[in-house]
């Protein structure tokens, strides 16, 4: 089985745990995931199957959407509810309008320091392992972007919000930073991912639903094909001889294409397909004064 499953990850499981469960349910060895979720978080976890694992580097997951709840007045060492409270502040003077005004300051391109409790590595050691030993190392700020940040419900000291952000954003750090700006501290109580690139919660299945589908031989209907998962990339249709060439690692020429000679393309990656199946991801460029597309090199071939 090849492609992607959109799993609705439950709280209390790591992303690796989900992959292990999917592997057991489907009896398939080649399984991976993209877009790690913290154990306390729930929601969209794209799980790659078979040839889908080859497509992971080409996915457009530049935008992610979350629903979250932060608690004001308590800062924790992990920036979420799983950690130890390290400071408390007074939130009682805050108003919904004042909180909203601070939240708006975080919309747009911002700089964010990754948390110590993260999978980022220093000298090959994950930061969370160093954090558990009581160590703290300097982390370089990273440029991220908050496309939208909307307060959904304010029931102090809890504030529910939705956020659309760039890849690499730590929502718990966003909550902690907002708490810092408000002067009372904050940590994340709930986090649910609603969308990760092309994968949405509307198409997600729980572990239990997947197990039921496997028992009734209906899993294939849940799988997003590699061709569909990479739909943001322009598609070029190959002739049979083009498929044969690509299978042998040979770059196809214009005569190997059924379509795409006059497509609008500024250059970059494209999908090469045949009969609804992804054959390869390639690098292409426009030639002949913008009238034709030329495949320059194959980036990944799918079998």
TrEMBL record:
Family to which the UniProt record says this protein belongs: Belongs to the pseudouridine synthase TruB family. Type 1 subfamily.
Transmembrane domains' residue ranges: none
Catalyzed reaction equations: uridine(55) in tRNA = pseudouridine(55) in tRNA
Source organism phylogeny: Bacteria, Pseudomonadati, Thermodesulfobacteriota, Desulfuromonadia, Geobacterales
Organism from which the protein derives: Geomobilimonas luticola
Gene: truB
Function: Responsible for synthesis of pseudouridine from uracil-55 in the psi GC loop of transfer RNAs.
GO molecular function, one term: tRNA pseudouridine(55) synthase activity
EC number in record: 5.4.99.25
Key word Metal-binding present: no
InterPro entries in UniProt: PsdUridine_synth_cat_dom_sf, PsdUridine_synth_N, tRNA_psdUridine_synth_TruB, TruB_C
Residues annotated as domain Pseudouridine synthase II N-terminal: 23-171
Domain tRNA pseudouridylate synthase B C-terminal: from-to ranges: 172-215
Keywords: Isomerase, tRNA processing
Domain of life: Bacteria
Designated name of the protein: tRNA pseudouridine synthase B
Any Pfam family: TruB_C_2
Active site, UniProt feature: 38 (nucleophile)
């Amino acid at each position: 089985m090849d492609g992607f499953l959109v799993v609705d990850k439950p709280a209390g499981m790591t992303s690796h745990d989900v992959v292990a469960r999917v592997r057991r349910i489907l009896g398939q060895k080649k399984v991976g995931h993209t877009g790690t979720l913290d154990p306390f978080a729930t929601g969209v976890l794209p799980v790659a199957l078979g040839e889908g694992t080859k497509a992971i580097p080409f996915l457009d997951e530049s935008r992610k959407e979350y629903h979250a709840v932060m608690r004001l007045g308590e800062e924790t060492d992990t920036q979420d509810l799983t950690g130890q409270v390290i400071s408390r502040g007074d939130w009682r003077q805050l108003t919904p309008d004042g909180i909203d005004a601070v939240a708006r300051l975080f919309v747009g391109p911002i700089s964010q320091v990754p948390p110590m409790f993260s999978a980022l590595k220093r000298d090959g050691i994950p930061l969370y392992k160093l954090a558990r030993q009581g160590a703290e190392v300097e982390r370089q700020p990273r440029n991220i972007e908050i496309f939208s940040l909307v307060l959904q419900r304010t029931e102090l000291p809890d504030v529910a919000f939705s956020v659309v952000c760039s890849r690499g954003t730590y929502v718990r750090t966003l909550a902690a930073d907002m708490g810092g700006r408000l002067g009372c501290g904050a940590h994340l109580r709930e986090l649910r991912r609603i969308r990760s690139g092309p994968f949405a919660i509307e198409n997600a299945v729980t572990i239990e639903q997947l197990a039921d589908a496997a028992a009734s031989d209906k899993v294939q209907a849940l799988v997003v094909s590699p061709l569909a998962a990479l739909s943001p990339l322009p598609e070029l249709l190959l002739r049979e001889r083009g498929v044969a060439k690509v299978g042998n690692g040979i770059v196809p020429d214009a005569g190997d294409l059924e379509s795409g000679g006059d497509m609008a393309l500024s250059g970059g990656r494209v999908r090469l397909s045949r009969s609804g199946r992804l054959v390869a991801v390639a690098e292409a460029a426009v030639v002949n004064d913008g009238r034709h597309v030329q495949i320059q090199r194959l980036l990944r071939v799918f079998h």
